[in-house]
Amino acid sequence: MKWSLNELRQTADEPLMFEETLDLKESLKQRRPDILDVSDVLVKGIFSVDELGVLGYAKVKVKIVLPSSRSLEPAELDLNFDFTEHYVSYHERDLSRFEDTDVVIVLENDILDLNSVIEDNILLQIPMQVLTDAEQQDEATMPEGGDWNVVSEGQLKKMQKDENGIDPRLAKLQDFFKNSQD
User: Fold this and answer.
1) Distance from C-alpha of 7 to C-alpha of 87, rounded to nearest angstrom
2) Could you read off the pLDDT of 125-165 as tens digits, one per residue?
3) What's this model's pTM, rounded to 2 decimal places?
4) CA 42 to chain centre
5) In DSSP terms, which residues pair with 3 in a beta bridge?
6) CA-based diameter of the chain, in Å?
7) Which residues contact 131 (CB under 8 A, 6 or more apart)?
8) Nearest to 116 by CA among 87, 92, 90
9) In the list 63, 86, 96, 153, which could disulfide-bond 39, CB 3.0-4.6 Å?
10) How far apart are CA 37 and CA 64, in angstroms?
11) Which InterPro entries does the entry link to (predicted)?
């Protein structure tokens, strides 16, 4: 869906509400090739005109399948987020009226393309580390080699507790300060 800024400004009396189901699978896969699958994207939102320009708010729900950052097994990621953005014309050069925390998008040719706005925000929501359910529960088999293996943070903490946290090379120093305090 696309709207011109003039169309959105004409709705100044009453906000423009929308609810859409978007198929963004191919365009998201083109922008981020490691994406394995994407469900239809459910979007609910509103555009309103205020003294700053056009304000957009949207809630987005989507499921994305990505390779696990640990094992490269397919991992499903449920994204459920909302965002708020201000949209202004490319003719406007002075953005000082906005707060530093406001997200301001300058629209090329004064056209707001909902698909690209939603795509951008989905890509921003994907975390750096994506794990399968088993990996999140520390139940997954970790990679290992002849004389090495990978341990999770939970396994590492457990191993440190089991060893009382004392490095055997420094065990003799444990009693060093006990004698000096007497």
Assistant:
1) 13
2) 999 989 888 877 766 667 778 888 777 777 778 777 766 65
3) 0.74
4) 17
5) 112
6) 84
7) 68, 69, 70, 75
8) 87
9) 63
10) 6
11) YceD
Q: Strands (DSSP E) along the chain, which ranges?
A: 2-4, 16-22, 37-38, 41-50, 53-67, 74-89, 104-107, 111-113
**Which amino acid is present at 90?**
Y
Identify the residue whose tokens are 């994506």: 130
Domain ranges of the chain: 2-135, 144-180
* Residue 8, both tokens: 């959105």
Q: Which distant-in-sequence residues (6+ apart) come within 8 Å of 76 by Cβ?
A: 63, 64, 65, 133
Residue type, 3: W
Task: Indicate the SS3 state at residue 102.
Answer: coil
